[in-house]
Fold each of these.
Amino acid sequence: MVNHKIEVRNLAIAYGGKQALGNVTLEVYENEIFGIIGPANSGKTSFLNAVNRMDMMRPNMDVTGTIRINGLDTRSWRNVYDLRRKIGVVFPLPVGLPLTVYDNVALAPRMAGTAGSKNNLDELVERCLRRAALWDEVKDRLNHLGSLLSGGQQQRLTIARALSQSPEILMLDEFSIAVDPVTTMRIEDVLKELKSEMTIILVTNLVQQANRLADRTAFFLNGECVEIGDTESLFNGDAKDARTNDYIGGKFG
Amino acid sequence: MDATLHDGGRTPSPPDNGPPLREYRGKQAIASMSIDARDKNWYIDKGFEILMFFCGISAIVFVVGIFLFVFKEGMGFILHDMNMGEFFLSPKWRPTSLNNPTYGILAMVAGTAAVTILAMAICLPFSIGAAIYIAEFATGKTRETLKILIEFLAAIPSVVWGFIALSIMNPFIIETFDVPMGLGVLNSALILALMAAPIVTSLAEDAFKAVPDTYREAAEALGATRWQTIYKVVLPAAKNGLLSAGLLGVGRGFGETMAILMASGHSINIPTSVFDSFRALTATIAAELGETAVGSPHFQSLFAIGIFLFFITFLINMTADFIVRGVHKG
């Protein structure tokens, strides 16, 4: 039996009374890549924000329903920071913080107080950058500002930063929007490797990217979770809902 | 292969027996060129360009003009009457002495520097704290009310601050600390801190507001607490803006005249405690310029002080510039 890393029950999200996502019930298994596809404005990002409770930062965002991580309701998590430390997030547009490349990666361990000795931290930074396939490009300029790297490099820096506290879950929100195709492929290879260590939620508006990476895929449309299924069967035309077939087949979206 | 295949059929093929392709395209371009209002109004465009150029260089013209004027007046003193060692190293400012006038500004420099440093030490923590609260925590009505109140604070004229220094702070300091006189470094520094606070606060708040929200979200997504987000990410990102806010405060400290004239006690000595009276460089110019004969060494020496103030400001700005560039090089 597969382990349910995340269980979502009847999740609904509204912004100031206007529903953005409704009635989502799904499970994400441990060590899988769970793809979420769907056109813009279908609630994909809202879903991610609800999982790591970023709704706390947005006063007009109402979340109802339950999300359990490791069987624990995220709302019962007294320390929301602890929850977020378990979840790495990669945003659509790369966010290289205005710190040096080194400090970008070392930020989380330093804040957590687990940085340890200089050697330890050096090792950790190098390991994270290597795993994000960025080390070779930045090893000679770890002291340069992270926000001055190219877009694709910044996105990999964001991934390295997310990896720096060994998250159990990695959420990527349309990470390839501002990244060239070659870098996208490199990041996709990285994700395939990371799968063995963590659970990955991949939100993408590239249908083929979900096809390449995801074990299972959910299709969101206009704030509704239309269908969830094995990526293979969805893409082989076995989708139950006609809209899924149309979207995957390129008839709209 | 047909030409239309190469560019997707966008360029029509030349007709048979027609002119060669290049010439044909040229004619096509002229025929299809449309002249709209933007092309006809080019002279307005040019006019605005020239106008903007003059606006742009007017700042330079004014600064150079003021500098030349002050320099012209001060130069006579610097060349004839000034003794460099005495000017900078002597605390004795006795320009009106009949037998042996001395022009030493050390006491005034020390007093001005002391009060500026103390004022900034009081002002910066409060202002940056206030800016953090307004930019990062306060919402809705609290935020708006605070901003209006702070702007109101900035609108109080400096002579009113001087009045407050004389009539409220003075007896307050005398009673609280049991000292004979309340006018001096502490009084001036408190007044100066209050005067600089609104500007420093609102500049610092702008600096915080200029930090993109994506930085905050990225930090919070890493599990940073509110305080860690501000301390580790927002503050470094706003560093340049905060620096310029602080330096504006320092500039204010060196440049403020009226309130300091009233709060300092205006006696020439190097302050050794915060209750000592002192005299500011600017206050000296303000108090004495009207009472000297135009062109006399005393008159010109006041302009020499002006030149000195000029250089101090210049130095502060240059320092800020270098620090900001250093930050960029990382």
Amino acid sequence: MQSKPSAAPSRAGTGRAKAMLRDDRRAAFWFLLPSFLGLAVFLLLPLAASLALSFTNWQLIGQSKFVGWRNYVNLLTIDPSFWQILRNTFHFTIEYLVLNIVISLTMAVWISNLRWGKRFFRLIFFLPTFTPLIGSAIVWLLIFTPGGFADWFFSALHLPIPNLLTSPDLAIQAIVIVSLWSGFGYNLLLFGAALEAIPSTYLDAAAIDGASSWQRFWRIKLPLISPTLFFGTVMTAITSLQVFDQVYALTRGGPGSATATLGFSIYRTGFAAYKMGYASAIAWVLFVIIMALTILQLRVQRRWVHYDL
Amino acid sequence: MTSETLGRSQGQRTGSFLLHAGMVLAALAFLFPFFWMVTNAIRPNAEVLAVPPQLLPSDWQWSNFVYAWLYLPFGRFFLNSIIVAGGITILTLAVSSMAAYAFARLRFPFSGSLFVVYLATLMVPQAVIVIPLFLMMSWLGWMNSFQGLILPMAFSTFGTFMLRQYFLQIPKELEEAAMIEGCSRLTIFLRIILPLSRPMLGLLALFTFTGQWNSFLWPLIIVNGPEYSTIPLGLTLFQSQQGVQWNYMMAGSTISMLPGILLTLALQRYIFSGIAMGSGFGGR
């Protein structure tokens, strides 16, 4: 008596389940269609095309033909500017990355130790984050321009610092400063949130055991926020490898090629010299570097999945 | 004993005071470029590079904002930026929420591998695809057009990934109840899933809009001249005009930064919670 009503729905249930599965497939097709079409046309196709272009001497005008590995061979062996561009990119990325992480972490710890104004100070340093980099870069251009505020400031302090923008050795420092000013507030917020998430019982227990605040930072806080720290570091590295806006607004790669980075050089080669095949080869060098970083991140992160906070 | 604890607490108080005072100084130094931007926007151009620099303008010419606005078609840039950033945001929300629903709830063949493909596209830097995209746009005749500015940027899979995570947290029972009543997947998506995901959709909209408002490389490549310039591109047009009008440039920078700053101030709690999720929202 009791089994009959339960048997009937279950048989109807399997029929319904099959129908649902079929409906699911049909629904999935329509739900995915717009994004898949967009992705295929505006991302996958250009990606494949860019790889193909990198093996040609494609230019806007004139005949284009397949040249095999020649672009890559030229880049690595003949082109004297490429090594400088690669060096500039790594110089910028490493210096910016180290300074960004050190400053944002120091400030995050500093702010988390304040009694009042935590949110207020985080907000101040975050202000440039949602504004155009071009806007910030133009403000700093005025500060750094020959005869501008920075020149006056350095000479008032009797510092023997030449004008940053016109000095081949120091121009990249101007790019670093602008990037730091407009970028570190994001990591500050990210690390600040991770620090807030540490249970206060851990820190209290350590304090009772007599750990100094220095020890509490290195032994408790830093290990506990290390997954966030790592995530922030890799994300920042990936974006800074692509640096473009600041370079364009401040120096246009100059003086000479002193601040030409991979991102800028793709633009200059492709859209000023119209050597689109060669520019595509540079683009793929950038892509391979970023791919390697991403894979490294995934590898290391997998080890951290079971890391419990 | 008591004097020792008293001494320590007094030491702590001075320490705390120094921490705060130092932070106030750091914040003031940090804000200097904003101060320099606004004070130079409203001074006569001849005074911008005065030696020694004058902190405050001799004459507060707020009218410079009007002149900057008219010197280049800034109203047009502003409108273009709103159309482009707004268009990309709306498209991104629609397209990625649909895809996210399929990945979160629907069973279909190869869903796992397809999702990996979606994720992998996040790794592709814009600089790698701009050259073929540029050729595609010129072939389509989409140079200097809104569709050229909007469509290629509207299919980032980042939103799909974020929204899928969010949809997965919505209890399935809600949908099952609706299905028993005979609702279609589309109805469930529109009437149940989307309304429940408002906070996440809002966050995605905010980060997409500001990101696109600030975007520079793509407009630089496919736009020529002021008609379709967005604000960041318009700012660089000041640089190429004859004789640098620093005060107008600073006024332009101020205008370009204002929406982002106002949004940050108005929605700080919301933005901070989005970043605290450690999702890579707007990562720099």
Amino acid sequence: MISVKNISKKFGKLQVLKEFNLEFELGNSYALMGPNGSGKTTLIKTILGMVIPDSGDITVASQSIKGDVTYRKQIGYMPQIGHYPSNMKIGQLFSMMKDMRPEIKTYDLDLMEAFGLEEMKEKALGTLSGGTRQKVSAALAFLFNPEILILDEPTAGLDPIAVELFKAKIKKEREKGKLILITSHILSDLEELTNRAVYIYEGEVFFSDTIEELKEITGESKFSPAIARLMEWTLKKKSTNPQLSHV
Amino acid sequence: MFKLLKYALYDILKSRFAIIYTVFLALVAISIYQVSDDLSKVSLSLMNIMILFIPLISAVFATTHFYNNLEFIELMLAQPVKRIHVISSQLLAVIIMLSLSLILGFGLPMILWGADSSLLTLLAVGVILSTVFTGFAFWASVLSRDKAKAIGLSLALWIYFSLVYDGLVLYIIYSFADYPLEKTTLALVMLNPVDLGRILMLMQLDISALMGYTGAFFQQFFSSGSGVSVAIGSLALWILIPTISTARVFNKRDF
Amino acid sequence: MKRLFLLALTLIFLGFSAEAAKIILKPGQSIQAAVDRATPGDTLFFSPGNYQASAVTIRKPLSLIGENYPVMDGEGKGNIFLVAAENVLIRGLKFINTGKSNMDDSAAIKFFDSKNCVIENNILEETFFGLHFSNSSHLTIRNNKIKASASREFEVGNGIHLWKCKDNLIEKNEVSGHRDGIYLEFVTNSLAKENLIHGNMRYGLHFMFAHDNTYLKNTFRRNGAGVAVMYTKNVTMQENRFEENWGSSAYGILLKDISDSKVIGNVFQKNTVGIYMEGSSRIDFKDNNFKENGWALKLMASCDQNLFEANNFTRNTFDISTNGNTVLNELKENYWDKYEGYDLNRDKIGDVPYRPINLYSVIVEKIPASVMLWRSFMVTLLDKMEKILPTMTPNEMIDHSPKMRPYDFG
């Protein structure tokens, strides 16, 4: 569904993505992991067209995203921290988003109902707490029933009840055969919600396979230690890297 | 595009700043109307305030607004909309808000106590200066990733066009005082939107008589068809250059 | 013997005037023939209507009186009346269409070597010169309406033109559309009062070598270049209004080489330059009201010993400008609306002196092209700095006793 082909991106002197290649298939749920600054967010933003790569291409449903905006109709994106126009009310935000996809007539209102956003329609976005804002972001991401869901730290800031409701919703969508891409620092969530792990290190794919495969390779039976092992390996690789050894 | 503009406008027109700014302008205009006893005095006083404050307020507000809306802009970029539409709707919303405030704030007292063509020119020049400096501010904002830097750049542009440029002009005129300078000064006026706006106003106020030979030369130029076209053309360039640069930078910018 | 003859002659004249004839003219009749037939002292009454009149020559004391403004039509040929006599009275006539030639200075009425003449209540329209007097004296020019409508300066002469005349009274006339409204050259001991001079091509009032004259309560409005007076001493100008003379070289009044004069109680309003002075000395300017002018005063360095006392300066763009650094004139007890000082001892005189020249006006005087910066923020800043730390403006141009409140001149 999403093919990332030879993407390179530099921010100033810092090479964030190096000849990056990755495939995301429908029906899978991906846990996107890596240490801070490894390029996770850049990858997501590149897929969304918010960051423009120096070279390489991305195709979504076999269509290059260069110069195209319509492919984003297939993507529901939940940002890490959602900021919205403070004078706008929740209801207006939703009708604005609907307004931007006039051809979509059926809406997925599960999360809105679950989070009770319908009752807060008249609240201005500027007055919302961080958690409520996350709920709004989540509800928006699912609103148009997209094929692809990109969720950046989805559970951060949500109360436990909301987290459970949200996870249930993600699982439900996953079962419908959608492509789900999640970054999170809460490994238990990832284990619960995803079937494939992508580990990015210094702008390159260090690991990309099923979670079973990950456990097998690392020899760990649990998800968290498996990830911890991956991290150790990356550090070793770094120390054995002759170019970096002098650092 | 229009949908984006509609929502951007909705947000900005309801902001506290829009109300404060309109009231501020109205108070300024009302107090000037109260103390001046004829319309040309009103025009002159309003012009003095406008030439100085409109660019300043436009530059600072537009920069702040861009940064306050950065996340909203990012949200929009993740939607199936073109980048050019996102930035132009933001830019237009700020321009429309600043212009509406100006037209309401200065215009209502004019409706109450009368206006003449010079006051209408004043409004037009005010709208143009708001547009130009909003353009500069957005350009500064998309160029730098840091709000403080962007405000600094906007302010630097304001100081340059309001003060430094005129100082340079005075220096040039002073250094070449022995040569006929009318055409040179005219060209220098075209190269600064603030000066151009000011001169257009002064020409309207029939005070060119005070300006001696240069004034007569300017008057002749600005009352001829080609002069008007040149003035409008350069104002259009002053609007287009920063806005087009903004759009170009924005289209390639990473968020 | 000679004296006896003169006496006899006078008696004859008196005899005539005692039983002066009243001659009534009708349209179509020859004016010249009637004038020639009339004896000195006769009165010619003009019935209403049109008269062809070209170069009607009057050489004896006569009264010419019109009823309902009979029209003396010069039909575009030369002068209408020519007078060289004493005791001529011309009243209630309307003169139109003189010749338009610059060669012979055609006029409605041209006086030569005349004395004790009265010209009153006449209307002059489309005349090249209006009333033209040479080498005459004791003239009374009163209540005439003199109007031309030329579009260019050389297409028209002066409204009231006096050359080498003395002891005259010019009052309550209205002159418009001429080159100069009132032109006086070598005219002395005369009084011009309550005239309304407006919309003339060049100067409202123009005089040269015209000493010892008084100008009282006249209004000079919207003349091409205002009023210009030159090479004269002992002039009194009182309670006149100089208004709306607006244009790149227009002045309320231009004083060139004027000395020992008084300018008192006048109003200068909405002129590009209220008063422009060069080479003038010992003039007292008192109780004048300078308001809404571009420059209230342009005082060239060639002026000295002038006194400006108790004048009001309000809402002028610039109060004073000058072209030099030495100032030999005195300013005192004027009211300046731009004065920002204070009065701690409550004597109604500001405690800090006022400098009426701002830096920018000095710069503009030196480099005219710098007017393009007028009203820019930078100029405002420069002026404020100069007020705090004067560096370029002349030090002596200073009013040490500025008034806190404007004078009330009524």
Amino acid sequence: MDLVVLVAIQVLYAIASLALISVGLAIIFGMMRVINLAHGEFLMLGGYAAIVATSNGMSIWLAMLVVAPIVVGIIGVIVERTIIRFLYGRMIDTMLATWGLSLFLVGLTTAMFGNTTVGISAPLGSFQIGAYRTSVYTLFVIAVATGVLAGIYAVMRWTRLGLLARGTMQNANMAAALGVNPPRVYAITFGVGAALSGLAGAVLAPVSGVFPTIGVAYVAKSFITVIGGGAAILSGTASASVLFGTINQIATFATTPVFGEVALLAAAIVLIRLLPQGITGRFFRRGL
Amino acid sequence: MNDRALNVIGLALVGVVGAAFLILTPRFAELDAVLELTVFMIMAILALSLALVWGYGGILCFGQSAFFGLGAYTYAIAMFNIGESTGPLLLAIGLPAAFAALLGYFMFYGRISDVYLGVITLTVTLILFNSVNSTAGPEFHIGVARLGGFNGIPGIPPLNIPGNKAAPVDLEGMFYLATASLLATYFGLRWLLASRFGRIIVGIRENERRAELLGYDPRVYKLATFTVGGALAGFAGCLFANWGAFVSPTIFGLAQSAQIIIWVIVGGRGTLIGPIVGCIGIQWLTTALGANQPSGSDWMTNLMANAPFILGIILVAFVLLVPRGLVPTLGDIGHWLLRLRARPAAPSLKPKQAEEG
Amino acid sequence: MKLNRRSFLQSTAGAAAASTLSFPAWAEDPIGVASVHDLSGGLDIYGKPMVDALTLAVEEANAAGGLLGRQIKLINYDTQSNMQLYTQFAQQAALKDKVAVVHGGITSASREVIRPVLDRFKTLYFYNTQYEGGVCDRNQFDTGVTPAQTVEKLVPYAMKKWGKKVYVVAADYNYGQITSQWVKKYVLENGGEVPSIDFFPLDVTNFGPTISKIQAAKPDFVWSALVGGAHISFYRQWAAAGMRKSIPMASTTFAVGNEHIVLSPDECNGMLICYNYFQDLKNPTNAAFVSSFQKRFGADYPNITELAMGTYQGFRLWAEAVKKASSVDRLKVIEALETGISIDAPSGKVTIDPPTHHCVLDVHIAEVNNKKLNVLEDFPQQKPADTAAVCNLIKNPNDNQQYVIKI
């Protein structure tokens, strides 16, 4: 019984972390068709922002939940204004540019922080489930992921910004004709996507650690999750995370982490073969 | 001067320069330069394989490294088991081609297109990476060849003269082989693209629906293109395993797959010479940045010597300044210069005449 | 391999150059020493300290007047964590720079890439990293520790302290696989048991399921042979699950990548480790070394690692042999090294073991305590017994392979 509870928590955690690392990319790709290969580095920068803030005496919660998203969000807006805005409608070129950006950021972080950065450890301690112990922080990550998804839903559904964003996403020309300023919506969108990535990177920093090249560990997985989810940003990311996270973690429990990883990837292939437009190409079509 | 004449001149130029390069390099260059050029030539074949699949076939393949790596691993494993290189060479081409055909069937007959192709191919190469990477234990072997996991397979025997195990190809021979193979691949692809088949795949790239309505089955043509691309990448992998006598799972990794795409974008999609130039240029840059590092300096000096950092800046600047890729942009400049010269000589050129070429 | 025209010309030219080195006209040329390490990409965490140590060693030697009256020129290559560049830079170092010796390689994979290249082009090679043991090649010297030198000491020490049931987690590659077999062997020899050995590829960061499996197995302690930046998250998640205080840990890989500084004291205090070198070793040579190292690279330098010291000692051994041979000629230097040359190094006395080309050296067990490594016990002059079981280069100088040692 205690094992069942433990596995359930671990599966939820896998889903939550997958959703967290993917949601920023989903917004940027889903709304702007920009393949952001520097996505992993945005996560990495979020981790560093949180570390720098805590080592300067700030509370860890403030550092993770406020400082990291703001810092990375600002970096995102700068990147959009200086590079990405010249490349709209040129999906392949965004790939090359963001790959270059990712190398640039890794080099810069290595030079600035060195490669031996003191990390932050997970707060909140641990609790007992029968014969097992696990960290309270796991539950916190699950809560943050739920909060982020709920927040995006609320913004998209009930605010003017959400309406504009949805409109621009569906038909940029029509939105422009109706008086929306697409460049501004794009800049804000990119900034929000980056900020969410920064948040994710900071929240996962106490679990996975932070070093300049950690981005590669994230980028492929989040890209696969986003594409597997399909066109709808929110329901797509959520459903793909549930599917892949569950498969990954259960396979890991039953066998080894390698097999868990391979099972996730194989599931993605089968999924795209069966549903060539991703999950939300078939299901939850009216979702956000 | 019309386009066909330009085309012939271009081909002749590539032929002459290529042949001169092939014959003269080992005579005049130092051995280390010859060895380095050998690997550049091999990688250029890999770049050509994606130039065909993506640049002409319109198939966004993010996992060309899967076939490259399969070729290298197949050659290594077969070589340890067989010992004479003819069979391993053929296997290193045939197996990736068969795998590409299988994967292509799975994708194209499932009507998967666009960015979804990119994700599936990327996923496939990552699966290969993860699987091969976890074969470090002694229980993972094929015949007498241990897969080696993360450490890879060292000490791979070189190719030999077909049928004669005792006559391995030496270092210069390897250069001749790689360069001649690159030239053969280039001209072979030129021929293929000029043929009926080539025109149809470009037609499908431009407008799949229209090609279908004209009676061509895009699935068959895409499958064929993808398979040829897989075979070429496998061949390049076989040569690569020869050059370094070594192969490891990073050959399947994200960095390697992205690199091939970067060569093609930098050189220019929809050309063959472009990806070759892009590949050699980027490879040369990476090597040059890694050599002669400062040691024990302050962080600014270290940053300026950090290879990924500099390469990153160059790539971003490149996308913004040379958006169509090196060779098409140079071509544009060339055309523009030609027109500039032609204009005063033939001021009465009618539009109709201009279209005839 | 057929000797073709060019390689023949190259090798004779090299020999000619070597034989003319003693002429006064050549005496002003600096001696080339190549460094081939990862200074960017995922492995730079290990490579940077190694290159720093090599830089210091070269600068010290030059300040003392160089070798044989010539200055030493360090040619520094960054392989960017990319295997292809290991081949290319090894070729360049041997053929273009024509260096006297190459120091380099971090993973065993990179060593196996460099080794054949330098064998073929007759350039002396020093591999300065702790590794799984078994390389037997007259052209190569290995200054790092192997499992028989450290694991053999740490296993009984930890078992005496904590108990007999040992759960092993290891990185899934050659080093992790082989080291964990040594651990198992010594645990069984000391009357203990190993319920499970789990392997993790180097990019795994999710250890939740593993930690649950370990909890279910209830071992007396955990042995970690985990390696690299991603694996640091194991210690984090272990501590976050509240396990550090109930099940202790021992390792021969922890702290090589400065894990004890990256992690907070709460996440790793009390862990036992075993190496050749610790920055806190109390002896006059080390005190002098640490002070000049910090003078050169700053007092805030995080930690002088085991691998950095291996590289420093590797260079010093080579320099000693050059002095003894009065030449940088490859064969003469190898012969000088094979006399069993030894130096008084910061880690203690380090001697080349002629039959294996590995080192006889001191090892120490230490405990992690508040970002420091406190030495608990010393084991002087440990022989590379594992490699010695399979390799004798004095009897078989033409041997050239990496043995898989039967355990």
